[in-house]
Amino acid sequence: MAANLENGKLAPEGASKFTNGRPASKGYESISYEDAMVKYGTGRYQLVLFILLSLVTFSTVFNNNGYIFIGATQKHHCKVPESSNWTDSKNKTTVFIYTADTCTYNKLARYGDGIDENITEVMIEDNIKCDSWVYDTSVFDLTIMSEWDLNSCNGGKELITLASFLYMIGFFIGCILLADLSDRYGRATMLLISNVSMLGIGIVASFSVNFPMLAIMRLLLGIFTAGARNAGFVYVCEIIKDRAVAGMLHGVVYSIGGVVVTAIAHLFPHWRNFQLACALCFLLYLPYYWVMGESPRWLLSQGRTEEALTYFKKSARINKVEFPENLHVYLEYQKPKEGNVFSLFKTPNLRKKTLLVSLLWFSVSIVFFGINYNVGNLGGNIFVNNYLLQVSGVLQFLGIWYIRLGRRLAISTAFLIGCAMCAVVPIFTSYGIDGAVIAMSMVGKLFIEANFGMIYIVTAELYPTTARVTALGLGSALARAGGAIAPYLALSNDLWPSLPYVIFGVIALVAGLFAILLPETKEKALPDSLHQAENENPLNSFNCCKKEKEEIEEQAMKKLATVTA
């Protein structure tokens, strides 16, 4: 039964065979989903499920970060013709030699006068445009730059950036399209579809015959990486009682995946072998659909009570807890999927929360991916820099304690610390202290990456079961829009080496200030309907604003009383 829209707010559901989600039939012991999680859904079984789902997140990093190595820059210079000798009719020998630059080369003639052996060099032609290049293979055997001559001399560097942009556009599409399908057809179903797709597309990508084919594969990979990442994260939030710990550990696993993908790139310096190795990892996750089953909270939201009870019975057995025979688990609002992404903007409180959360998603993504993509511009070895940046992300497990102080405080201060780290980079850059620049990048990335995890948690806590993946999908989509812009911002390094960090710092500052308005969701039950999400957890407002509003209302009531008198 659809909810009524009254005065811009969602009204409660009408009467049905459920009263606040509880069954009207007798002979059953009723227990809420939240209480059932505490009694029968917390233990070793949930730990196993968490590990299995975290492995999916672990492997999605291969698609997110892998392109850093596939499209890595290799030092290069013009490939010039071999030097040649030419002898004229007077038996004077002239040697044609070539001097190479990055994008051009010069042709010179060198000859002797045949008398006192003086050597003369004459420029025959200068600044000849290159049509082929020689690439340094000391770090990578082959990247798409060296295979298809995609370098800065012929506009190829912009094409490499374009493929990053297309991947993020694909992620954007996946967040919107597949999130809606996940809310309609289930988390496990979406995980299966996404993992099969990432396996197949990844293998095809490793055999790409040209750059346009690879770019299309990257677009498709982005779509299904979004499906797997969001469905897996929401599944975790719906079965783990301590969402803060689960969410932050999920982020730690992501960073560990970043370390591993760097190691794989180190092991396979040929981009095709690297891409194939990353794709084959998704073979491990195909059995998940049958091993894990569907999210019990989603099953209850669809009215599939018996299947949800099967989950709790299995959980109780593995956790060694006795499960009563006549037990009914209920959601406070037991209702199928409500609307679509536009439903998140229909009512005042939801609209404000959605706009604020969208800003935070967009901002955290620009800064996070910007620092990642800018790693190639840092001094030193690309592998060492990546190892350091990814290891710093592993330290975000400290956020498990940090986020317990409050979601709003944690997110706001993490943005502001990230801003501070970006702000000092130009100082160290001006003095050429590369080590300090890398250190500041590590610290900034640590807090911004931790914020990614915290924003995931807050989004899952603000929105109901029936639209949770849709909300996460919208946020992730806007994050990928930010991620699509990030590589182009990293290119501003050509104008001024510190310019990317100045831009990232300003964005982090703005987001940190707006994050103060977030509602506090710490230790609050997850909403199960749009009605609950609209009427609970309003945006934070300061006491001064509250008092001002109360005074205005009081004056209005006095005027009304005077008029009626």
Structure description:
With 565 residues, the chain is α+β, with helices and mostly antiparallel strands. It has two domains: 26-74 and 141-517, Growth Hormone, Chain: A (Up-down Bundle), CATH 1.20.1250.20; 76-135. The protein is 60% helix and 10% strand. It contains 21 helices and twelve strands. The chain has helices at residues 33-40, 44-65, 67-70, 144-148, 156-185, 187-206, 211-239, 243-267, 271-280, 288-292, 296-301, 305-318, 348-373, 382-394, 399-402, 407-430, 434-462, 468-490, 499-514, 530-535, 543-564, and strands spanning 5-6, 9-10, 18-19, 22-23, 29-32, 76-78, 84-87, 93-100, 104-112, 119-129, 133-135, 327-330. It has a four-stranded antiparallel beta sheet, with no helix packed on it. The protein has a two-stranded antiparallel ribbon with strand order 1-2. A two-stranded antiparallel ribbon has the order 3-4. A hairpin with a 2-residue loop joins strand 1 and strand 2. One of its GO terms (molecular function) is transmembrane transporter activity.
Largest sheet: 4 strands, antiparallel
Under the CATH scheme, which class of the largest domain? Answer: Mainly Alpha
Intertermini distance = 44 Å
**Class inferred from helices and paired strands:** alpha+beta
C-alpha geometry: elongated
CATH architecture of the largest domain: Up-down Bundle
CATH topology group of the largest domain: Growth Hormone, Chain: A
Number of domains: 2
**Helix content percent band:** 55-70%
Q: Supply the CATH superfamily name of the largest domain.
A: MFS general substrate transporter like domains
In terms of quaternary structure, what is this?
A: single chain
Q: What is the radius of gyration computed over CA atoms, rounded to a whole number of angstroms?
A: 29 Å
